[in-house]
Design a protein that fits this description.
By secondary structure, the protein is α+β, with helices and mostly antiparallel strands. The chain has helices at 62-74, 145-148, 154-164, and strands at residues 22-31, 37-42, 49-50, 53-55, 79-84, 89-92, 108-118, 134-140.
């Protein structure tokens, strides 16, 4: 029997950010009748709040992806379309996540954002989906968004908020 050979740990080669594409994605700013925005907290995190978002599948358009993602992430797609951003918004993953999330395939996300009004009852929102991503949710004032979001996504949220701000209002009843 031979003794095992001590080998240094294998370091992964550095990921070349510039060689990776952006993940095609949508994000959804979902409003309630009071003009508040839906945010949810990532499972297992202490403070990673975000709006629903997800990847665009082959052959899918941004609008249909947005409604599919609502159903998958918050258990309901009871919403009406209001607007879409004029152009996609991009963010890059920080160095400590690059090559680790999304199986290392993407450098970040390129997102079209949809503004929608929630048309269901709060009991329709269910986080216990087939593949739960969130463990808490709440409605917030839109101006609180940038302060709740992880730093590397903050510029996108600020841009989306600026673009949608004129359309965010309570429903007059």
């Amino acid at each position: 029997m031979t003794a095992p050979i001590d080998r240094p740990p294998v370091d992964r080669p550095p990921v070349d950010r510039e060689s990776l594409p952006y993940r095609p994605c949508v994000g959804i700013m979902l409003l309630n009748d009071r003009g508040e925005v839906f945010v949810a907290k990532r499972c297992g995190s202490e403070a990673d709040w975000q709006m629903p978002q997800g990847g665009i599948d082959e052959g899918e358009d941004a609008r249909s992806t947005a409604f599919r993602e609502l159903e998958e992430e918050i258990g309901t797609a009871k919403a009406e379309f209001i607007a879409m951003t004029a152009a996609p918004h991009r963010y890059d993953l920080p160095d400590d996540l690059l090559g680790k999330v999304w199986k290392g395939r993407w450098r970040g996300q390129e997102q079209m954002w949809m503004l929608a009004r929630f048309t269901g009852a709060e009991t329709d929102i269910r986080l216990d989906t087939d593949h739960p991503e969130f463990d808490a949710w709440k409605w917030i004032d839109a101006e609180e968004l940038p302060g709740l979001i992880v730093a590397f996504k903050r510029p996108v949220y600020q841009s989306v908020l600026a673009e949608f701000r004129p359309l965010i209002a309570p429903v007059k009843g």
